[in-house]
Design brief:
The complex is a heterodimer.
Chain A (H helix, E strand, L loop, with lengths): L2 H6 L1 H6 L1 E4 L6 E2 L15 E4 L3 E10 L12 E8 L4 E6 L12 E11 L7 E9 L6
Antiparallel strand pairs in A: 1-2, 1-3, 4-5, 4-7, 5-6, 7-8
Chain B lengths: L3 E8 L10 H15 L7 E5 L3 H4 L5 H8 L6 E5 L5 H15 L4 E8 L7 H7 L15 H16 L7 H11 L13 H6 L2 E3 L2 E2 L9 E9 L5 H4 L3 E10 L14 H14 L8 E3 L5 H10 L8 H6 L16 H5 L3 H17 L12 E8 L4 E9 L2
Amino acid sequence: MEIPRHWRIKSQRYGLVGEVCPHCEIKIFPPRDVCPNCGGEAKEEYIFSGRGEVYSFTSLYDGPAGFEETTPYTVALIKLEEGPVVTAQLTDLGDASVEIGMPVEMVTRRIRSDGDERGMLIYGYKFRPLGLGPR
Amino acid sequence: MTEVVIAGIGQVPVGEHWDISMRSLAARAILAARKDANGLKPQALYVGNFLGPMVSHQSNLGTLLAQNAGLEGVEAFTIEAAGASGAGAFRMGYLAVSSGYVDTALVVGVEKYTDMIGPGLEHYIGMGMDYDYELMQGITTASQAALLMQRYLYESKAPREAFAEFSLSAHANGAHNPYAMYRKAIKLETYERAEIVSSPLNMFDIAPYADGAAAVILTRSELVRPSELEKMVRVTGSSVVIDRLSLHDRPDPLAFEAAGLSVEQACRQAGILPKDVDFFELSDAYSIFAVLSLEAAGFAKRGEAWKLAQSGAFRLKGELPISTMGGLKARGNPLAATGVYQVVEAVQQLRGQSGANQVAGARRALVQSLGGPASTAITHVLERCT
């Protein structure tokens, strides 16, 4: 059980809350203590739109612990429209074939379960093809 | 500056050693290296290890391994940098000896991978990534490499089958290495039929994880008799460069920036250009890593290393042999031990002890170990003393 660890970053997982650097105005996700662009201290919250495009992707047939039940699944690097890139699963793909450059949007989904009946269910961001209707 | 030389090497066969414990694996490599160094007595033991605390539930390896190998009165501790841990320990040995604080240092890289089985293992190996923002999204190290490969295919327009040559070449070399996990050449159709692990990456694009231990003894040249110095190898360049840990934080993930910079720095220290080396032991944990490392080091233009590979440039008789004893792909990838195996194999080449795999006239080697997708890049230049 790692409750504090997951609780601590719930606003990132559920809301894609990152930062905007007060010094150079670059958008940052995931949050950092120091701006990777200008080296200034970065503490100002910024909520990302959740829209972006696929930078690269892969379908996994062999997942790590906690993900065995959901294999195969697709993981991608998503370039958000504000600049940063995130690592996340793609979801709701249906028959859509994934391509680099495909527009996607963030949705909240179950990420993994801890296994046993008392285990935690961890929710967080995944991305789905843009235009599937309201989120 | 003080000249640091490699006075002894030792290794155990890479494989699944269900019957040998981590401490015994390490001891075998240590004893072999000490014998090779004619009993030279070390004052320090630097251990490269990655998975011990997770997979074997064992920390404080410096003390444990020193005691078990009968090394009394040494200083000892572990260096960890994921897959580059062994190279990190070698760097530590180099720093200790070149600084003059230590006369003779023993470096051992050891990984006991088979102390556990199942998906938990993949999870532990993934701990070299950002746990919160990579591993918890369900990504593995293989799928991280797959993301790079997919992007590479898109940007370079390389055909998918171009990657086969790296696997074929490594297995051809591994066939003649008695310490290699796989000692059999493979055919193109074996590669093409291999199961997809994380698209577009297949089983033969991935170096197999394994158990292993390798050791080297470093000392200063003035402490060695001139007659013995002849078979020794000098460390003339040493560099560690880190990148942003996660692929998603890098402006250009295919640049493998740390790998390139690390080669540049190590070569500058050695007073050479990368093209002056006779062979390159690189980190082919995944075939795409070999491609990106070659391009980052400047041995091929961006997006073109696969073309050079098709011409045989990286085979034993090519312009720049790589993975001469099978690389991670065929020798096996005992994670933290890998960086020390690479040094041991380079020393074998420079001493002219590589048998059927001998690179003719090898005098200077470039050796690079990567932690993650070049999140950490550790590069050394090694040269024959005479």
